[in-house]
Structure formats: structure tokens, C-alpha cells
Amino acid sequence: MNEERKKINLLTLLDKKKKGEKVVYITAYDYPLALLANRAGVDMILVGDSLGMTTLGYETTIPVTMDEMISHAKAVVRAAGKGAFIVGDMPFMSYQPSDETAIRNAGRFIQKAGCDAVKCEGGRRVASRVRAMVDAGFVVMGHLGLTPQNMAQFGGYRVQGKTKESYDALLEDALALEEAGAHFLLLEAMPAESGGMIAGKLRIPVYGIGAGDQVDGQLVIIHDMIGLFEQFKPKFVKRYCEAGQLISLALRAYVDDVKTGAFPKPEHFYEIKPEEAEKIVRS
Question: What is the pTM of this model?
Fold first, then answer.
């Protein structure tokens, strides 16, 4: 069921950084959208805990569980795992309690779901978790800037890295994650200057979601990009289509057709031999 394309792996992504080739990174949470993303040629797919808001209807990412993440990750891997590099997003409290907890849950993403890597939020304070997972053999992506699991500490969804003090803290966190063995870093919601400076000081690939154009690749939330999430639209999002509006039009047309008898019509019926139909009618 996977589209035939060469599998993207860690070495592929590291080579892209050496060559200065931009990496295309997107979220997906289910089989149909992951299949389309893989067909389009995206390099990486994040099964993000953002699915709590875009797919499950939670107000934040905090309620998302490991079981929910694994279920969605399995679907994405079935759709795109032979092509794109699949990253499983570690939800709240799946790695914070201890190194052992982090290793166990990272193992579930790799062993049970078939992901290629895991992502966790935080800097210096989660460096030991990153080191533990890397030492256990996992490929790990760090995540700094606007980290939704820490929204309460930020006082909401706030842009980071807008002052020298904030930038310095982010850079220190980034260097700590690199030192801990992180293979990639994701920067979210910060000025392009801050994102570019941090990316330029690290050896590992640095990707951005709202972090400017001087990073090694771009991530977007697929529901934001295609217009399926209407609650709010981040500044950094470019809408490539309005899928939500198209789906709404289709559903309204379906409602009207059923109510007026315009659907179904004979072309939608299964055929039966006339003599068999007559027997049924007479029975």
C-alpha cells in the first residue's frame, strides 16, 4: 500500500544538511493524509501530539496519551513508512518522570508503531532524557521555542527568542541538546534572526516551524496548511487550499440531495436480473 520511493533515513537527512538541501517536513495523523503527503514527496512526517487539537478535539495537547499517539502513528507508518522518515511525538508525561519512562515510551514508538525517531520538548532540563534515549539506540529530535506542553509556564502561546536574554537561553538549551546526542532540533515560533543564528551554531540539522528561512527545513501542521483547522491560524502558516470549505460544500450538497431525492439515482443502484426482481416483489 506504500508508494514506491526510496526510503528517507537518518543518513539521507544528514547528507541533505551537508549539501544545503532544504528538508520538507509536515505533520500527519491518519492513513489518508499520510499517504498523500508521501506521494507528494515530503521528506519527514511528524505524528505530532498536535493531533489532540486538530483531530481529537482537545483544547490543548496536554490530554494526549501514549496509546492515542501509538494508534495514530501506526496508521501513518502503514501509509508512508516505506518512503518518508516518520517521527513520533512524545506526549506530555511520557518522558518527563524519568529516564526509564522516556526509554520505555520511545521504545513503543519504534517497536509498536514502526517510527524512525521520536521528538520531545524542552532544553537543558530534559537533556538527560535525550541522552538516555540516544544511549538506548533511539534517534531523537529536540524541540525548543514555543513548546505547547509548557504553555502554562509561557502564559499562553507566545513567540520566543524576541530578546537577547531569551535568545541566549534558547541557544544554551540547543547546545545542551546537541551535546546530549540529539540528532535533530526543531525550533518553533521565533524571529527569523534567532532561528537562523541558532541553526548556524549547531552541527545537527535544525528545522523550523515559524522560525524563519535560515534553518535546514520547514515543518507545518497539515491541517493549518490545507484549511482543516479553523479555530485559529498562526502567523507563520501559508494556506495552500481551503479543504474545510470544500468539504463543507460537499456535505451541504449531500444533505440537500438526500432530502430532495436527488441521491441516490439508478446509476448508484446494484443491478438484479428482472426475473429475480419480480420474484422478490411478489414474495
Answer: 0.94
Is position 188 annotated as part of the catalytic site?
yes
Residue 96 lies in a domain: yes
In a domain, 278, yes or no: yes
The reply to whether 176 falls in a domain is: yes
Per DSSP bridges, beta strands 140-145 and 217-220 are unpaired
Q: According to DSSP H, which parts of the chain are helical?
A: 10-19, 31-40, 51-54, 66-80, 99-107, 127-135, 151-154, 164-179, 192-201, 222-226, 243-260, 274-282
Residues 146/154, Cβ–Cβ less than 8 Å: yes
The CATH code of the domain that includes 167 is 3.20.20.60
Residue 274 structural domain: 246-282
Q: Mind listing the pLDDT tens digit for each residue in 99-133?
A: 999 999 999 999 999 999 999 999 999 999 999 99
User: Torsions phi, psi of 262, nearest 5?
Assistant: -75, -15
Q: Name the catalytic one among 179, 188, 271, 276.
A: 188
150 & 268 share domain? no
| Bond prior to 264 in cis (omega within 30° of 0) | yes
